[in-house]
């Protein structure tokens, strides 16, 4: 273990209205060895999981489309975002979470998924770690309509499309969600649908 670079961490709650926003102050030792006092606002919504659903035979993928208010407030005209199926872990483990969310959001009941990455979503601001999965689907796995939970007023459109079309949307700027970009690029790099 190297020399400890952080000490005197103190958190003050700014909001627990829905998730948790803390003001965190701490002393941090710079490369020069000098200690500085710093403050960061840190948003804690727990961790999340997302999945690229793909069908090797049909050469298709399933994505979702939904309204995302934060993007509407920042340059996304109608606020609609094309994304992988994804959700927050709540108290599930990542694998159970993504299987549940896939069912709720897309209507497909997966038995097997493969974890490929674990990565921080927005490390300067959020504690959230995202668990990335891929999963093969077939038409026989469709057991419901998807669309999200009415109880949470989710209004999710399910988009099944040729992989080629998803790549076009990636390249022409129609797909602007980082997690979705990561998984589509993974599929290209690893030739998942060749
Ligand atoms: N009332 C209320 N509801 C909220 C609030 N924030 C989120 N919700 C609701 O909480 C539910 C969360 O749905 P999930 O499917 O579990 O999560 P998600 O919003 O799809 O999040 C996924 O994508 C995020 C990135 O866009 C990820 O940050 C997250 O980890 C996850 O992968 C949604 O119905 C959403 O509308 C809030 O402040 N107030
Ligand atoms: Mg979701």
Automatic annotation (TrEMBL):
Keywords: Hydrolase, Magnesium, Metal-binding. GO terms for cellular component: cytosol. Its cofactor is Mg(2+). Mg(2+) binds at residues 86, 101, 105, 154. Pfam families: NUDIX (PF00293). Residues 44-183 form the Nudix hydrolase domain. A motif (Nudix box) lies at residues 87-108. It catalyses: GDP-alpha-D-mannose + H2O = alpha-D-mannose 1-phosphate + GMP + 2 H(+). GO terms for biological process: nucleoside phosphate metabolic process; ribose phosphate metabolic process. Signal peptide: none annotated. GO terms for molecular function: hydrolase activity, acting on acid anhydrides, in phosphorus-containing anhydrides; metal ion binding. NCBIfam families: nudix-type nucleoside diphosphatase, YffH/AdpP family. Belongs to the Nudix hydrolase family. NudK subfamily. PANTHER family: NUDIX HYDROLASE DOMAIN-CONTAINING PROTEIN (PTHR11839:SF18), UDP/ADP-SUGAR PYROPHOSPHATASE (PTHR11839). Homodimer. This is GDP-mannose pyrophosphatase. It comes from Hyunsoonleella pacifica. The lineage of its organism: Bacteria, Pseudomonadati, Bacteroidota, Flavobacteriia, Flavobacteriales.
């Amino acid at each position: 273990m190297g020399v400890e670079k952080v000490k005197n961490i103190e958190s003050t709650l700014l909001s627990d209205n829905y998730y948790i926003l803390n003001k965190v102050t701490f002393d941090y030792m710079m490369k020069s060895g000098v200690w500085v006092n710093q403050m960061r606002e840190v948003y804690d919504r727990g961790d999340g999981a997302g999945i690229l659903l793909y069908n090797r035979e049909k050469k298709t993928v399933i994505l979702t489309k939904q309204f995302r208010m934060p993007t509407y407030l920042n340059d996304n005209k109608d606020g609609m975002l094309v994304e992988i199926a994804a959700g927050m872990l709540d108290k599930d483990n990542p694998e159970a979470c993504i299987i549940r969310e896939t069912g709720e959001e897309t209507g497909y009941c997966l038995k097997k998924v493969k974890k490929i990455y674990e990565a921080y979503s927005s490390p300067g601001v959020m504690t959230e770690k995202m668990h990335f999965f891929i999963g093969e689907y077939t038409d026989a796995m469709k057991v419901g309509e998807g669309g999200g939970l009415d109880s949470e007023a989710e209004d999710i459109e399910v988009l099944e499309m040729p992989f080629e079309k998803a790549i076009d949307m990636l390249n022409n700027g129609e797909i602007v969600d980082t997690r979705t970009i990561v998984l589509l690029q993974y599929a290209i790099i690893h030739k998942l649908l060749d």
